[in-house]
Amino acid sequence: MKEDIGFMERISRDLEARKAACKILEVAEDASQGQLKSAYRRAATKYHPDHNQGNPEAGQKFLLVKCAYELLASDKPCDRLLNEINSWEGAADDEKYNLNNPWGHFLWWREKFFG
User: Please, which residues have CB within 8 angstroms of residue 15's CB and are 6 or more apart in sequence?
Assistant: First the structure.
């Protein structure tokens, strides 16, 4: 059976996006809905453009906070978040799973969907 390279890439990108979202919101990967909501409110207040009128990057950071929350809270992917990942050195490292082989991807997938 031929391996589906696209499938592996999508899983890797999803893991990268989730790790970046956790980093943006400053939460653990297993954060509860309540913890996510609290972290979102804290980060949104911190980066809201109205609170940072002198900072031209505040609007971009605010949108990343929104994307991160939507991904972690409701599994809604965001291209803006994926683009941000590419600019971070080392953001895609994952210590829990070895994603260089199909077994690592399977273990990640099993935990994601079957807890």
Answer: 92, 94, 97, 99, 108
Instruction: Enumerate the domain spans of the chain.
Output: 5-114
Instruction: Say how far apart CA 10 and CA 19 lie, in whole Å.
Output: 14
Digit-coded pLDDT (tens) for 23-43: 889 999 899 999 999 999 999
Q: Does domain 5-114 have CATH number 1.10.287.110?
A: yes
Burial of 32 (0-12, 13-18, 19+ CB in 10 A): exposed
78: region left, alpha or beta (phi > 0 left; psi from -120 to 50 alpha) = beta
- Identify the residue with better confidence: 26 or 4: 26
